[in-house]
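Quick one: structure for this chain?
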Amino acid sequence: MGSGLDKKIISKFENIEYLGFIENPFVIIENSKALITPIFKGAGVKIKVFDALSCGVPVIGNVLAFESLNIGLKNYFYLFHDEKSALVEINKIDKLITEDYIHLKREFYKFYGTPEILNIINRLVYS
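Got it. Here's what it folds into:
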């Protein structure tokens, strides 16, 4: 999801479906194996990253993708610095099993599951 992903990266994977920009990607994220999010500018928490973690979907991203997130979830942050390390992190996702996704969802709500935070997330996602 998003715009401007280099076609060279897309062509390296047979089992990745690139969708481009989507207005409300929550349902698609919820049914995905991972969120790949290279972010090159911006600040603060990225809503798509929150969406993914709240659904139990691990995130593959660069340093900016994980900015301002609780380090307690770092086992579900697949950090890359360049194209080669991105490929390594993407391949790690294939080894995850259903219980890993369930555990991530539980851990996310352990850190961010207060009513105040859930209200903020809901406002940002559904507004």
